[in-house]
Amino acid sequence: MDAIFIQILNGLDKGAAYALMALGLTLAFGTLGIVNFAHGVLFMLGAFCAVSVHKILTFSLKVRDESITFFEAYKEIPYLEIWWGDTGTAIIDYSVPISIFFTVPIMALIGIAMERGLIRFFYKRTHAEQILVTFGLAIVLQEIVKHFFGANPIPIGAPDIVAGSAPVGAFFGFGDTMVYPWWRLIYFIFSVVVIGGVFSFLQFTTYGMVVRAGMADRDTVGLLGINIQRRFTIVFALAAVVAGLAGAMYTPIVAPDYHMGMQLLVLSFVVVVVGGMGSLPGAVAAGFLLGILESFASMNEVKQIFPGIDQIIIYLVAVAILLIRPRGLMGRKGVMED
Amino acid sequence: MSSKILNNELFLMAAFTVAVLTMPIWLEPFGASYPDLLQKFAIFGIFAIGYNILFGLTGYLSFGHAAFLGVGSYTAVWSFKLLTMNVIPAVIFGTVLAGLFAVIIGFISLRRSGIYFSILTLAFAQMSYNLAYSVLTPITNGETSLQLANNDPRILDAATASGSGLPSTELFGMTLGGYPGFYFCAVMLIIAFYVSLRIFRSPFGLKLAAIKSNQTRMSYTGFNTRPYLLVAFVISGMYAGLAGSLMAVTDPLAGAERMQWTASGEVVLMTILGGVGTLFGPILGAGLIKYFENIFSSYNEQVLHEVFSFLPDLMENVMVFIVNPFVGEGWHLTLGALFMVVVIFLPGGIMEGFNRILTWIKKDRSKSDDDGATIKTRPSEG
User: Contact A235/A227 with Cβ under 8 angstroms?
Assistant: First the structure.
């Protein structure tokens, strides 16, 4: 029982990342009809927003290190510490949560620029061409990031308070031995909040209602005198923000490098397909489901029976789903079933 | 008149053969005339031609062809290790085994079309890649990649085994490194091109093209499209296997990174850049990409300073600053940007560009001749 519980927990943070990515992909696909191969790059850009914020906050002054006396040693003291002392140190410590406030507007701008600058010319082209052009864009953006930040992963820590592990066993009465990193727990809760936010935006606001109407029948909504195109652009920006937030918060879990998004992209496409093209709840459910499934597959007991299963389980599920139930778990009948 | 000559198969093949075999001569002025690069031209040419048979003719966008390339490479290296250093069995085994893989993957993937097909092939390729890195390490040697070793059995070579050091690949006693290696690949390229030419101009090719233009209508005429698609998929998989085994021939080493999906992306880029569904386009695209990859990635800041040294100092620095991110390590940036430009403005690739220029010239001439005849532009095969 304990083992099962801990595997579910292990799957949650990965599943949360899959779900956030798949949610954005589905939003872009459901509204604009765009198959966006650059979505993984948006995740990566979000992570690098966090990296940039961290870099700016730790902008340092080089001073002589007095504690070392045999030779001239220098150490770097961030300006923030010089100016504000302990408050500065605390700010640096919290650079990842702080970066969220910068990630949202930056990613929204990037999303709008991408949609207006490139993607709107591809509504009428085939899916293959959409895939190809966004794939090209992904390469370009990756290489730009690589040019500025280098090819190596850049680790950034979570704030000190939550750097350790949470005694989740004690919370649920499984004994004290069961622990789980705080930040992964926070990531999961954060993703639930974001997903809840997106859903309530679409479900409970007039704006969201119009968007949903547009997803169902774009032409009719246009005939009612609503500028649906503009709303769809905003939705695309929203998808970019979701991906960016997922990336920014992910930095303490996996040190970001320039091609992290591409690996995730392939997986999140699989997630979207499993959940059902165009179905938002399907994308989220499939994301968590596959994340948890993957963590079960990496248990030693399972690996002894099926060696290597943890590497391919997600793809296997996707193949099975596509062949047996092509519209996915929650896809609507007749939508992209071919 | 000119199109008649171009349609004559014998002439086309003769011209192509001459062009390929004299590549070391006419590529000299471009600084591309060394065996390593020429081998790459030929190998990736084969890969792209094969990919074009699937994507160009049927319109099915596969993102998993690198898997077949990897299978071909591994098989060829294993043939070198177990049987003989002769390349003929290696190439045959590599091609056939890749074909078998393609039968299995194609049979499953082709049950869906459009984006689902792309994702299915992508999923299979990723599965092969992940397995090659983890469970299959006894076969693939994981991250260290599969290499020849001195104590390999090499059953057929045992009698003639000689001396120490690793043996090199050979064709009945002729060592296949450098130019001989290129000529071997070149002959393969010519054969591959001939087969693709025959396919393009056969009833089978026409059927594939019909599937691309309207699959629904095709099946309404009582035509079962799937076997044809599967045959096209297997043929293109075998081409990839051939290319993979040739890679092992020129350099007996096989790594899993050949199977990564970015490698599949590369062949898509080549095909698109040259021109999807044209005969020559993919070869052209493969050659261009490999050429620029080689040239661009060898540039660094110093070389750039030399290149722009004719400019005044300030201009020189500005130019170097602008160009620097695009060359050397950043070569992929150029590739991505170029690719976007092609997809956006010239979806038919370079071949479409040629055709546009040609029709423009013709139009111009007919206007000046004032013959008033309507210009018939037939879709050219390239």
Answer: no
CA-CA distances (angstroms) from residue B62 to A172, A237, B59, B247, B302? 48, 29, 9, 21, 40
**Which residues of chain B does A137 touch, with a Cβ-Cβ cutoff of 8 Å?**
336, 340
Question: CB–CB of B337 and A140 under 8 A?
Answer: yes
Indicate the number of domains in chain B: 1
- Mean pLDDT value of segment A274-278: 83
Spatial distance between the Cα atoms of A65 and A73, rounded to a whole number of angstroms = 5
Q: Which residues does chain A have within 8 Å of residue B122's beta carbon, measured at their own beta carbons?
A: 266, 269
Contact B334, B327 (CB under 8 A): yes
Closest residue in B to A117 (Cα–Cα): B344
User: B75 Cβ partners below 8 Å, 6+ apart?
Assistant: B90, B93, B94, B97, B98, B241, B244, B245
Confidence class for position A32, pLDDT limits 50, 70, 90: confident
Calculate the alpha carbon distances from A145 to A47, A52, A150, B54, B260 in Å. 11, 11, 8, 34, 21
Please, are residues B85 and B157 in contact by the beta-carbon 8 Å criterion? yes
User: A266, B130: Cβ pair inside 8 Å?
Assistant: no
Residue B271 is assigned to a structural domain of this protein: no
Closest by CA to A137, choosing from B332, B60, B117, B349, is: B332
Interface touch A266/B261, C-beta < 8 Å: yes
User: Has residue B343 been placed in a domain?
Assistant: no
Evaluate whether ipTM surpasses 0.85: no
Euclidean distance between CA atoms B63 and B263, whole angstroms: 9
**What phi, psi does A58 have (nearest 5°)?**
-95, 20
Inter-CA distances, A306 with A10, A270, B132, B224, Å: 20, 21, 15, 38
The whole-angstrom distance between B8's CA and the closest CA on chain A is 33
Distance from C-alpha of A242 to C-alpha of A257, rounded to nearest angstrom: 19
**Amino acid present at A282:** G
Are the CB atoms for A28 and A236 separated by under 8 Å?
yes
Token couple for B381 = 């095969």
Query: Is B101 inside any structural domain?
Result: yes
Q: Which carries the bigger pLDDT value, residue B376 or residue B307?
A: B307
Q: Which fold has domain A2-324?
A: ABC transporter involved in vitamin B12 uptake, BtuC (1.10.3470)
Residue type, A8: I
Interface test with B, best of A141, A145, A322 (most B CBs within 10 A): A322
Residue-level pLDDT at B381: 47
B338: Cβ–Cβ under 8 A, 6 or more apart, which residues? B273
Q: What is the pTM of this model?
A: 0.84
Give dist(CA B236, CA B98) in Å, integer. Answer: 10
Residue B151, in any domain of the structure: yes
Range(s) of the domain holding residue B190: 32-260
Contacts of A327 in chain B (CB under 8 A): none
Q: CA-based Rg of chain B, rounded to a whole angstrom?
A: 23
How distant is the Cα of B116 from the closest Cα of chain A, in angstroms? Answer: 8
How much is the pLDDT for A42? 93
What pLDDT band is residue B368 in, cutting at 50, 70 and 90? Answer: low
- Are the CB atoms for A115 and A220 separated by under 8 Å? no
What pLDDT does residue B237 have?
A: 95
How far apart CA B69 and CA B374 sit, in angstroms, is 47
Contact yes or no for A85/A27 (Cβ under 8 A): no
Nearest to A137 among B325, B329, B340 (CB): B340
CB atoms within 10 A of CB B170: 17
The structure tokens listed for B145 are: 């990649």
Q: Which residue shows structure tokens 């031209």?
A: B41
Show me where the domains of chain A are located.
2-324
Whether residues A147 and B325 touch (CB distance < 8 A) is answered with yes
CA of B34 vs chain A CAs: smallest distance (Å)? 29
Q: Does A121 touch chain B (CB under 8 A)?
A: yes
CB atoms < 10 A from the CB of A311, how many?
A: 22
